[in-house]
Amino acid sequence: MQKLKKVKEKKYLNNIKSETERMDNLVKKLLELSRTEKIHNNDLSIENLSKIVENRSLTFESLAFEQDINIESEITKDILYKCDPEQIKEVVNILVDNAIKHSYKDTTIKVNLNKDKNNINIEILNTGDPIKEGDEEKAYVSDFSKAEEIVNKNNQNEKIEASGKKQEKKQ
């Protein structure tokens, strides 16, 4: 009798866990749909990317400092772009956070923002171990595909190119 009760409890707990995971996925999809609708409804506004990138990189300076990493910025002033500023912040957060996680101690991360004729370039450079051959896809699938998705949603006549790159390994 006791064993039967435990089996039923386990069945109910598994069902609750399954439903919780399903609801979690549903909420995430609804949030993404809401963001997508916002963009499709032209709720985008002209934003100063220079200030966004500068503020986001400043936010990470204390974290970088704790890990003996310096952050230098070379940001062209007053680059304006029609976008969802929260999504641009998320892209920069992803790139700078990854750069800190994968940098050697006593190195410098460079945060660059510039504009040429048709492109706006956000570049985060760090010095660390290169990605192992064959692991490139894994390294870029989660965070970088999210960053690319956000950038693509804000796509217009001008194009933003966001990248996280490794500098040459120090000898």
Characterization of the model:
- The chain is α/β, with parallel strands linked by helices and 171 residues long.
- It contains six helices and six strands, in the order H-E-H-H-E-E-H-E-E-H-H-E.
- It has helices at 2-40, 49-59, 61-66, 85-101, 136-141, 143-153; strands at 45-48, 69-75, 80-83, 107-115, 119-126, 159-166.
- The strands form two sheets. The protein has a four-stranded mixed β-sheet. Strands 1-3 form a two-stranded antiparallel ribbon.
- Helix 2 runs parallel beside helix 4 and helix 4 (85-101) runs antiparallel to helix 6.
- The longest helix has 39 residues, at 2-40.
- 20% of the residues are buried.
Q: Helices and strands: which structural class? A: alpha/beta
Strand numbers in spatial order across the main sheet: 2-4-5-6
Termini separation comes to 69 Å
The ordered H/E elements are HEHHEEHEEHHE
* Helix fraction by DSSP (H/I, runs of at least 4): 40-55%
Q: Stretches where pLDDT falls below 50 for ≥5 residues?
A: 154-159
Rg over CA atoms, rounded to whole Å, is 21 Å
What fraction strand?
A: 15-25%
Total count of strands = 6
- The count of helical stretches stands at 6
Q: Describe the largest sheet.
A: 4 strands, mixed
Mean pLDDT: 78
- Sum up the overall morphology in one term: extended
